[in-house]
Design a protein that fits this description.
2 domains; two-stranded antiparallel ribbon; 12% strand; mainly alpha; UPF0295; DUF2614 family zinc ribbon-containing protein
Length: 118
C-alpha cells in the first residue's frame, strides 16, 4: 500500500495543498500591481489570479469529493488504538495510528503471512 495515512486524509491533504498553492499564486500575482511594474505587472496579476482561482476551485472539488467518500465509508473500530476510523475500499489505514486495516479475510491472511516471513 503506498499511502502513509488514510485515504480520506490523503484527499484532504491534496485539497489543502491546492488551496495554499492557489492563494500563493494569487499573492505572487498581486506583486505586479503592488510594486507598480506597469502593464507587464497587470498582465502577470491577471494570469496568476486566474491560475490561482482555478486551483482554488479544484481544491473545492477535491474537498467535496473527499466529503462524499467520507459519508459512504465503512466505520470500524481500529484493533490497535481502539478508535473509530473510516475504511475506504478493501484496505485502508487507521486515521490515528496508521495501522493497515481490511475487512477481506483473504487479504488480511496474505498480509500477516508476508509480515511473518519478511
Amino acid at each position: 500500500m503506498r499511502f502513509k495515512s488514510s485515504k480520506v486524509n490523503e484527499f484532504r491533504l491534496w485539497g489543502l495543498l491546492l488551496t495554499m498553492g492557489g492563494m500563493l499564486l494569487m499573492i505572487l500575482g498581486l506583486a505586479g500591481i503592488v510594486f507598480n511594474w506597469g502593464q507587464a505587472g497587470k498582465i502577470m496579476a491577471v494570469v496568476f489570479m486566474i491560475i490561482g482561482m482555478i486551483s482554488m476551485l479544484l481544491s473545492m472539488g477535491v474537498y467535496f469529493w473527499a466529503g462524499m467518500l467520507s459519508t459512504s465509508a465503512t466505520v470500524i473500530v481500529c484493533p490497535e488504538c481502539g478508535r473509530q476510523t473510516k475504511l475506504l475500499g478493501k484496505t485502508d489505514r487507521c486515521m490515528y495510528c496508521k495501522t493497515i486495516l481490511t475487512l477481506d479475510p483473504k487479504i488480511a491472511t496474505e498480509h500477516n503471512v508476508q509480515t511473518e516471513q519478511g
